Amino acid sequence: MRENLRNKILVIGWLLAYLCTPALTLADAISHDEPAVTPYRPTVSTPATLSAPGWVEIEAGWIGGGTGPDKRQSLPYSLKLAVSPDWGIRIDGEAAVGVPAANRQTQFGFGDTSFVLKRRFEINDRSAFGMEAGIGTSTGKEPFQSGSGRTDYTLNGIYSTDLGEAYHVDLNYAVTRLGAVSPTEGRDQSRWVAAVSRSLIGSWGLAGELSGTAQAGAAPTRQLLLAASYTPSRIVCWDAGFARGLTAASPRWSIFVGFTVLTAKLF
Fold this sequence. Notes:
The protein has helices at about 1-20, 20-25; strands at about 55-65, 70-80, 85-100, 105-110, 115-120, 125-135, 150-165, 165-175, 190-200, 205-215, 220-235, 235-245, 255-265. By secondary structure, it is mainly beta.
């Protein structure tokens, strides 16, 4: 039973990867005048920049981590659509979640979903501020939820800038009003993120990130993330990496792989 559920997760992951195969096949036929992909994954932070206006951009992947009863694996996804260079919407969620069950089995279910409205404020051609307003809905059931179990509301402030020709920095500070907490916990949870990425020779890139959360009555979390990316064409980017928890309340290790791809042009 456990093996069957694990295979289901892997099959769904392969199907998601298969969806972007046509993009790789058609990449050579796309003019360099077409827009380029704008990956937000695999880091926790989001940049101020939006994806190409009018294009549907899809992010998907696999992430696994934790040990014992805290072991968890999932297939996160993000659907992005910018209506202009300064306004956009996004739907984030987990298409599948696997967690431990009794007798060393694995439970499998659908995760939570969030809806985000984003606004960009350009400073100059290298820097911009951003603001995101998000609503997290409890579409998943216990134990597959990643939110509080009720509707959560988040405001995220963003600052992004290019340092020279190779480096890029994203700084985020978010506050979430949790829909449900224990009697000893505060309703507001803050999250800070600092990410630095660097483009390398050819189509490769590297990213490093520190992030953490704070909440009254709850142990703080801290995480270090390192990732590599490969962009074989303007419309596809692959990524892989790992994260290391730095506090007792953080998952000790997690690994991830995924991709970002531009799909259909709506307008």
